[in-house]
């Protein structure tokens, strides 16, 4: 454990930021699962869910939670998966 006051503060801040980042990444994963579940449903709902995933990924990049290539990969893989499922 840190002995210096500023080091203790940094430990607390790092823990808080980690918790926030984990929660945000979890919301992205949940949105992806919801979008995949809507493939058989209404087209408008699917488009809205896709837009939500794209929005969350882009927001994560702007906040520094995800790297831009990671966000692009997530969006691309989701689009490919949805296209495969709807092509059947």
Characterize the structure shown.
This protein is mostly helical. 84% of the residues lie in helices and 0% in strands. The chain has 3 helices and no strands. It has helices at residues 5-37, 43-63, 68-87. The model has no long low-confidence stretch (mean pLDDT 95).
Labels describing this entry:
88 residues, mainly alpha, 3 helices
Task: Walk me through the topology.
Elements: H1 5-37, H2 43-63, H3 68-87
Helix pairs in contact: 1-2, 2-3
- Number of extended strands: 0
| Rg for CA atoms | 17 Å
Query: How confident is the prediction overall: mean pLDDT?
Result: 95
- DSSP summary: helix tally: 3
Low-confidence stretches: none
Please outline the major beta sheet: none
Terminal residue distance: 56 Å
Helix-strand topology string: HHH
Strand proportion, as a percent range, falls in under 5%
Structural class: mainly alpha
Shape: elongated
| Oligomerization status of the protein chains | single chain
Q: What share of residues is helical? A: over 70%
């Amino acid at each position: 454990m840190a002995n210096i006051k500023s080091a203790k503060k940094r430990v607390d801040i790092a823990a808080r930021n980690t918790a926030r980042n984990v929660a945000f990444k979890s919301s992205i994963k949940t949105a992806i699962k919801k979008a995949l579940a809507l493939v058989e449903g209404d087209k408008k709902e699917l488009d809205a869910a896709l837009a939500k995933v794209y929005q969350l990924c882009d927001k994560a990049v702007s906040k520094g939670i995800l790297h831009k290539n990671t966000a692009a990969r997530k969006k691309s893989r989701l689009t490919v998966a949805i296209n495969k499922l709807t092509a059947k």
